[in-house]
Prior knowledge:
single chain; alpha/beta; Nucleoside Triphosphate Pyrophosphohydrolase; 7-stranded mixed β-sheet; 4-stranded mixed β-sheet; 4 helices
Amino acid sequence: MSAEPAPAIESSYEGGLRRVARVVLLDPEDRILLLHGHEPDDPADAWWFTPGGGVEGEETREQAALRELAEETGITDVELGPVLWRRRCSFPFAGRRWDQDEWYFLARTTQTVTAATALTELERRSVAGARWWTCPELAGTHETVYPTRLAGLLRTLLDEGPPARPVTLDTEIVR
């Protein structure tokens, strides 16, 4: 008697953590692309975050990063670079707690027009759009941005280039 395969979402978990690939996408002017998200039932509970999402099936984190970027932004003309940062985070969203191990990949593009092409039902209810941010805009905003130190991380990246090996960010636990 053979067991049924686990749902695809389960394969993105390892040791209780959801494996996630995120993209720090920069345009030729060194602006970073962020998505504007909110709780599905409360648009006032909002934040900005980098494109990305869970690893599916047997795909690599690099493949997940490119797939998620295409689905969430329509941008496919990218040069994927190294992993910049790694972060573990835990947060409530859409009625459950998400525990994630996130890898942030550097990517460059000349394509700045965005169009979400393949959002999930949950993403359609919780992603309000995308915006390119300059480093000074990011540093000066009073809006919530994840990871919380993104403005300083971006400034260091632009000033010094990618780190020799991924930097481990502090674990973030929200509410």
